[in-house]
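Quick one:
INPUT:
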């Protein structure tokens, strides 16, 4: 029993329970009624009744109240965690910080515990809940690996200036069915040639996916009004996809391709810090780190099992494999000049004789910029030989022009047997003959 001077702190629920149990002890109600009123089992009501009979109101208060938890972090360990968080992981999120503490320092604690410590130390600010926005219908994952890949590029200071730049572009693709980041690559920008090189590497390694889900960035889709009026207007990327039978699908909002958008948010949290811990300083080393270290661990942790174990990637045909470098390149038409030269990107090229290929003046040829920065000139599917000219051939200067008034024109006089004269004579003779003929008919 509690002493008369002892002060006890009770919750509303405990006060309510004490009132019901008191009535049960006074036999005003029975155990069944008490269990219904308290929404407890009759067995638990008997326990509470026995505790109140022995200890009074104190029997309803939990015995561990006011005592430290059995799972609390010892003060020594807590100080060590705080020191590590401040020194090595000041901008890490609770989950990622917990993983690194376990991986590098053998300190295994629940992320919620790490979160409470970070909040207390001012290293983490809880995020505000977002207001409910536009309703969007949930879409189920695709069933098979390779059925659809989501692709995008993200500009960020991934190396935090260690390479002397302030921004790099990370190109990445994630499989919709498994959530596996199949391929990722650091590039200078999200232009035509880097994207072409990305997908050429992907197809050589894994085969052709059924479809690619991406946004309407100008590299992938022509957004001008003329494109909607003319379906034949395509980007270089659409042309390449069409040649290898890959279907590009264009999202109307970022939320539609949310898997790749969330991936980049995760990468901006985890990958930047992993690159920092590994002291990566160049894009070349970052790509190797992605391929050999980061992506295998990331996929092992976050990828899921697909509904079907079928792999829908298609292997390249012999013809596609032969022409893959040409397919995934930038194609630009040019017209051959009368001297068999052409201009491209402020550079002049001289077409030279190529065995088995006939080129005529004013022919339209295709200039291909390959991902290795080489130039190839093709016509009717065959490659032409060429040489690079140092400059455009200059026109001859100081030409002596003759004024028209100084020129004496001598009329040309046809000979007597010239076809023009013979024809004129024949016409005159025919007219004279017809006149004579009419006169004879009149007099007769």
């Amino acid at each position: 029993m509690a002493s008369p001077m002892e002060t006890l702190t009770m919750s509303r629920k405990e006060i309510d329970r004490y009132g019901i149990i008191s009535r049960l002890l006074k036999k005003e109600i029975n155990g069944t009624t008490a269990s219904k009123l308290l929404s407890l089992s009759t067995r638990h009501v008997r326990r509470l009744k026995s505790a109140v009979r022995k200890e009074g109101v104190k029997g309803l208060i939990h015995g561990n109240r006011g005592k430290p938890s059995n799972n609390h972090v010892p003060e020594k360990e807590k100080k060590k965690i705080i020191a590590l968080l401040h020194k090595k992981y000041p901008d890490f999120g609770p989950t990622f910080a917990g993983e690194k503490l376990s991986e590098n320092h053998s300190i295994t604690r629940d992320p919620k515990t790490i979160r409470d410590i970070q909040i207390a130390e001012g290293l983490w600010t809880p995020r505000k809940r977002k207001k409910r926005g536009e309703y969007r219908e949930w879409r189920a994952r695709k069933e098979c690996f390779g059925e659809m890949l989501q692709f995008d590029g993200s500009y960020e200071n991934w190396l935090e200036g260690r390479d002397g730049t302030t921004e790099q572009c990370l190109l990445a693709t994630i499989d919709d069915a498994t959530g596996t980041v199949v391929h990722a690559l650091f590039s200078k920008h999200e232009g035509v040639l880097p994207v072409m090189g990305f997908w050429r590497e992907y197809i050589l390694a894994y085969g052709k996916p059924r479809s690619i889900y991406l946004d309407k960035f100008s590299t992938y889709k022509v957004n001008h009004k003329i494109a909607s009026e003319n379906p034949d207007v395509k980007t270089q990327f659409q042309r390449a996809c069409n040649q290898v039978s890959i279907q590009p699908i264009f999202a109307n909002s970022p939320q539609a391709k949310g898997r790749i958008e969330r991936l980049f948010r995760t990468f901006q949290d985890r990958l930047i810090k992993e690159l920092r811990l590994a002291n990566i300083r160049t894009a070349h080393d970052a790509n190797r780190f992605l391929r050999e270290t980061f992506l295998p661990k990331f996929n092992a942790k976050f990828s899921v099992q697909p509904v079907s174990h079928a792999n829908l990637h298609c292997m390249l045909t012999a013809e596609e494999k032969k022409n893959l470098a040409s397919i995934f390149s930038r194609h630009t038409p040019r017209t051959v000049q009368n001297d068999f030269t052409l201009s491209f990107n402020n550079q002049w090229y001289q077409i030279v004789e190529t065995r088995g290929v006939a080129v005529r003046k004013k022919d339209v040829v295709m200039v291909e910029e390959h991902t290795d920065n080489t130039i190839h000139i093709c016509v009717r599917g065959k490659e032409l030989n060429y040489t690079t000219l140092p400059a455009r051939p200059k026109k001859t200067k100081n030409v002596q022009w003759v004024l028209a008034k100084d020129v004496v024109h001598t009329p040309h006089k046809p000979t007597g047997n010239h076809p023009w004269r013979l024809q004129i004579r024949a016409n005159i003779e025919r007219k004279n003959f017809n006149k004579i003929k009419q006169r004879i008919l009149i007099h007769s």
